[in-house]
Design a protein that fits this description.
The protein is an alpha/beta fold. It has 10 helices and 19 strands. It is elongated and about 75 Å long. InterPro entries: Creatin/AminoP/Spt16_N, Creatinase/aminopeptidase-like, Creatinase_N, Pept_M24, Peptidase_M24B.
Length: 392
């Protein structure tokens, strides 16, 4: 039996109704968003963003309109977009794109909330074409996306399963090279391998694969290169004694998960053990702090305190984590400046790390689902130093 990545019509009906209810509470007549993730969230239409506007108009009277270039019409129909399609011929167009939306809306004063990520150029174009509409900034759709629907959680869980497969197969590539006496892989070769595993698993086992910016893959780095938190894979070839990191993830149905583990090639030194164990303990404490009713900043403080107490505060470079959903990084933020209260159904990363210049970086990450009583990791690859040592 294959796994379908597409959500059904009932999901979009309930999602649109949730957004409408929040719009009414906020004194809005409609919501206008051109954020590609919002578009996918509200209608199920995934597209390649470019200069041609694609936007959703969702009003409190029950209409959901998807503005798009005519060349995308068949694409939206093939994805069963949950909206009435309003197309324009081309961009920039003899008639501006948002004018097509204005013709369908007709005259009448309205107050519409627009996404805060819209560019000044596009907001100006929308305001010019929709002259009867008062456009005000809102994060309403973003807030709605915080708590995942159970059908979304199913997609995240499948992405977590595949992420664990990618981690396992990344380690296998290294161990196979050691077993045969072959050359150890480079960071780039290891990254390409896990990417093939992730995408290959989806296309072999899923129907309706939703292609997004990063379907599967991640960051792979070893030795001193891993001391850069977001370093990119290079031609550096792994060698015995290295600390190396597999920072991987994938998106199923457009819903992301990340899973990261730090490995040691050969018997770890006392220093490597100290760094790894401090991060592992911080991640454990951080996971326990992720629970309903807790503020994001409190979870972050509890997590990072473990690293500071281990005398490694000088090697901290980032917060505990972030929200994850249709975006690999999205709010809320597990950081000292975010007082968002965690709720059941939220998914956040739990990824403390330390980065020692000239030596290596150590990071362990799981995507955590907030439950009614606490939280649980969606990814399950082992985390201890014993499980993350590759004998040489």
């Amino acid at each position: 039996m294959t796994f379908s990545q597409r959500l059904g019509p009932s999901f979009f009906r309930s999602t649109q109704d949730r957004v409408r209810a929040l719009a009414v509470e906020s004194g809005l007549d409609a919501v206008l968003t051109d954020d590609p993730e919002d578009v996918a969230y509200l209608t199920g239409f995934f597209h390649h963003p470019c200069e041609r506007p694609v936007a959703v108009w969702l009003d409190t009277d029950g209409r959901c309109l998807l503005l798009l270039p005519e060349l995308e019409r068949e694409h939206a129909e093939a994805q069963h977009a949950a909206a009435d399609l309003v197309s324009y011929p081309e961009y920039p167009g003899v008639v501006p794109p948002f004018a097509a939306l204005g013709r369908v809306l007709g005259p009448g004063r309205r107050r519409a909330g627009h996404t805060t990520s819209i560019t000044h150029q596009r907001l100006t174009a929308a305001a010019s074409a929709l002259s009867d509409v008062e456009l005000v900034a809102t994060e309403l759709v973003t807030r709605c996306r915080y708590v995942k629907d159970p059908d979304e959680v199913v997609l995240h869980a499948e992405a977590a399963r595949i992420t664990d497969v990618m981690l396992t197969e990344g380690v296998r590539l290294v161990t196979d090279a050691l077993a045969t006496g072959g050359e150890l892989p480079s960071e780039a070769e290891l990254a390409a391998h896990v990417t093939r595993v992730g995408t290959g698993t989806m296309y072999a086992e899923h129907t309706d694969v939703v292609v997004v910016s990063m379907l599967a893959g991640g960051l792979v780095y070893a030795g001193p290169n891993s001391a850069y938190p977001h370093g990119l894979p290079s031609g550096y070839r792994l060698r015995p004694g290295d600390t190396f990191m597999l920072s991987l993830g994938c998106a199923v149905g457009g819903r992301f998960v990340e899973g990261e583990r730090t490995f040691v090639l050969g018997e770890p030194t006392a220093e490597q053990r100290h760094f790894h164990e401090a991060v592992r303990l911080a991640q454990q404490v951080g996971g326990e702090a992720i629970r309903p009713g807790a503020e994001c900043r409190a979870a972050n403080a509890a997590c990072l305190a473990v690293i500071r107490d281990a005398g490694l505060g000088g090697y901290l470079r980032h917060r505990q984590g972030h929200g994850i959903g249709l975006g690999m990084h999205e709010p809320p933020w597990l950081e000292d400046g975010d007082d968002t209260v965690l709720e059941p159904g939220m998914i956040v990363s739990n990824e403390p790390g330390v980065y020692v210049p000239g030596h290596a970086g150590y990071r362990i990450s799981d995507s955590m689902l907030v439950t009614e009583t606490g939280s649980r990791p969606l990814t399950s690859f082992p985390r201890s130093i014993e499980d993350c040592v590759i004998p040489v």
